[in-house]
Amino acid sequence: MNLTFSKIYGGDLISLNYNGTEYLDQTNSASINIFECSNGITRVVPMDYINYTSNQINSEIKVLELGPLFGKLEIKNNISGFEFIRTIIIYWNDSFVDFKIKLRSNQPEAALVTQRIPLNIENSTVRLGSQYGSHVPQGWKEKLTVNLPAMYWATVYNDSVGLGLVDYGLISKRIFNDSIYLDLYHKSATEAEPDNTKVYRENKEVTLNFAIFPYMNNISQVYTEIHQPIYLNGYEYNFPIYYLLSSNHTGLLPKNFSLLTINDSRILLTRLNEINGNISLRLVNADIKNNISFSLKFADEIHENFLD
Question: How far apart, in whole angstroms, are the C-alpha atoms of residue 149 and residue 141?
């Protein structure tokens, strides 16, 4: 088994070769922007990390466990005295590879990410994926010099299930014509559809609320009207620099699941029990120089089996 990494705009491009079959290539590889510094220094800026590594970095890969259903690997990089460690669990079958990346750290702001990666395997359909994450370390948002916000976090919530963080990372490789595309995909499974491949088709109007927030040192938890925290794993910044509270869209809506992607690069799963027309997408902005335009669109169909 061969697993290779290369640095492109702050993300790891992953290529997996198992039993002579290449599951990912350089065109549809996963992108990971989360690192752990294990030498006691907890403040690491990804843009600096890019400068240290140029565009490519060799990784020390240690096989911790290898079996017919999964492999457990430790990925280690050492750049200018900074040692970055990832523990990756790879699951494979005939249709997809599932990467689970856990960054080892005693710091409360360390991230746990689960990412299911889009794959092209022989003649099979491209699979979509999911990712979870905790909040971004504040030090990563400092001293950024790009015109558009270089760091973000995006949240999506509705009134029934509360607020949850779904993605964070570098914006620079996901912009197109100064826009960030938030594409909302959806699917649903019923007893009549055990293969979980059909989209629940329902045509109704939904109001999408979203805002862009600047980087601020002051953070506050979000509470419901009954003063119960609805976002337990992170924080939300107040005082948006750009917001839109009434963006109506008429089209297909999900019944049970909602998938979010940023500029078609990563597809993120947020579990929503019900969507009644109140979805909020929020983007935390680390650079207030520019407003960001949004493009929201809905997919007609998704082919994917969820194991979670």
Answer: 9
Query: Which strands, in side-by-side order, build the sheet including 278-285?
Result: 162-170, 151-158, 278-285, 203-214, 242-252
Residue corresponding to tokens 């020390």: 60
Check: CB of residue 197 under 8 Å from CB of residue 257.
no
> Domain count of the chain?
2
Q: Can you give the pLDDT at residue 83?
A: 58
* The one-letter amino acid at 29: S
Question: What are the helix and strand counts (H, E) for the chain?
Answer: 1, 17
Same domain, 288 and 148: yes
Model pLDDT, residue 78: 56
Predicted pLDDT at 5: 40
Of 142, 134, 137, 178, give the one whose Cα is nearest residue 286: 142
Give yes or no: residues 40 and 95 share one domain. Answer: yes
The three-state (H, E, C) secondary structure of 156-190, written as one string: EEECCCEEEEEEEEECHHHCECCEEEEEEEEECCC
Q: Which structural domain range is residue 87 located in?
A: 2-116
What is the total residue count of the chain?
308
In a domain? residue 121: no
Domain assignment of residue 36, yes or no: yes
User: pTM of the entire structure?
Assistant: 0.25
In the structure encoding, which two tokens stand for residue 8, read together?
């492109």
Q: Does residue 157 belong to any structural domain of this protein?
A: yes
Per-residue confidence (pLDDT) for residue 223, from 0 to 100: 39
Residue 51 is inside which H or E element, if any?
helix 46-53
pLDDT for position 282: 41
Show the low-confidence residues of the chain (pLDDT under 50).
1-19, 22-58, 68-70, 79-80, 91-308
**Is 129 contained in some domain?**
no
